[in-house]
Amino acid sequence: MPKKQHNGSPAEVEAAFYDAMSRADVDALMALWADDEEIVCIQPNGLRLLGHRAIRESYEMLLEHGGVHIQPTQLHEMHNLMSAVHTVVEGTTVLRGDQGHLVATNVYLKTPKGWRIVAHHVSVAPGPTPSDTHSQVLH
Question: How many other CB atoms sit within 10 Å of the CB of residue 55?
Fold first, then answer.
């Protein structure tokens, strides 16, 4: 099956990524990554995965029992002509049904095939889900 082309914006690739996660569609998810073997994914368990094979195997294990429903919110974007960095708060439901949240950084590169993911880094966030990160002083 040919890969679906995503020539839209980084935001459209990001939406397609979370949609593929919810549908447990590993092929669609992997089609969003750059062809470069230098791609990297850091999962909440802290493992750093390099290259297509390691990333695919990780998502196959994660999604083997069905989709993972993640609601990204509080998008912060940094863009230039050839790259984009998005940070989001990922709302999810943990095993006991409690609401939890993760924080993620998604890095996109504009390639000849359109925008593609080159890095996805997710961390478990402590405490309650933040309601407004813009009012917080970071330094």
Answer: 21
Q: Which DSSP helix (H) or strand (E) runs through 16?
A: helix 10-23
Nearest Cα to Cα of residue 129 among 96, 92, 86: 92
User: At the top level of CATH, which class does the domain 10-127 belong to?
Assistant: alpha beta
What is the pTM (predicted TM-score) of this model?
A: 0.81
pLDDT in tens, 22-63: 999 999 999 999 999 999 999 987 789 999 999 999 999 999
At 49, list the tokens.
Answer: 């995965």
Per the model's pLDDT, the better-predicted residue between 78 and 98 turns out to be 78
- What is the DSSP pairing of strand 99-111 with strand 114-124? antiparallel
Cβ–Cβ under 8 Å, residues 100 and 123: no
